[in-house]
Amino acid sequence: MPRVLAIDLGTKRTGLAVTDPLQITANPLETIETSQLLPFLKNYCSKEEVATLVIGLPTRLNGQENEMTPRVYQLKQELEKVFPEKRIELIDERFTSKMAMQTLIAMGTKKKDRKEKAGNLDKVSAAIILQSYLERQ
Q1: Residue 25 pLDDT > 80, yes or no?
Q2: Which are the contacts of 3, defined by CB distance < 8 A and separation ≥ 6?
C-alpha cells in the first residue's frame, strides 16, 4: 500500500510526516528548509510510493484565513503540477503546534532541548496533521 505524506508548511522550516506502508501510523519524518521542500519531495517520492500528500491548512480560530493560508494554497497548486498522479488534500491544522509542544513535554523532552530543536516541533506537528487525516478516513 502506498504511503501518505503530511506537510506542515512554515515560512522558514517545514515539518514532514509519513505513514507506515499500511497507512496505520503517522510518524515524524523530517524538518527541512522550506526552500528545499519541492526537491526533497521529488527525491522522496522517487524512492517511496506515496499516493497522497496532505497539507496542513492554517486558519484563525474563527476559521478565516491567516497570513500563511495563501502560501498553502499556492503550494497545493504547485504540488498538483509536479505530482499530477497524487491526491493532494488540505486539512485543518489549528492547534497542531500546541499539541506538538504538549507531546514533546509528555515525552520528557527537556525545556532546553525543545527550544534548541525547534525542528522537532515542526515534524511532530506534521505527524499530528497526518494522524488527524488518517482518523477521518
Answers
A1: yes
A2: 18, 19, 20, 21, 23, 48, 49, 50, 51
pLDDT tens figures, 54-76: 999 988 777 777 888 999 999 99
Instruction: State the total domains in the chain.
Output: 1
**Structural domain range at position 90:** 3-136
Count of beta carbons in the 10 Å neighbourhood of residue 82: 14
C-alpha 133: how far from chain center? 11
Computed from CA positions of residues 73, 94, 2, 42, in that sequence, does the dihedral angle turn out positive or negative?
A: positive
Alpha carbons 22 and 39: distance in angstroms, whole number: 25
Looking up residue 94, the CATH number of its domain turns out to be 3.30.420.140
By C-alpha distance, which of 81, 84, 3, 8 is closest to 47? Answer: 3
**CB 89 within 8 Å of CB 83:** no
Cell (9 digits) for 3: 504511503
What pTM value is reported for the model?
0.83
Name the strand (E) or helix (H) holding 75.
helix 69-82
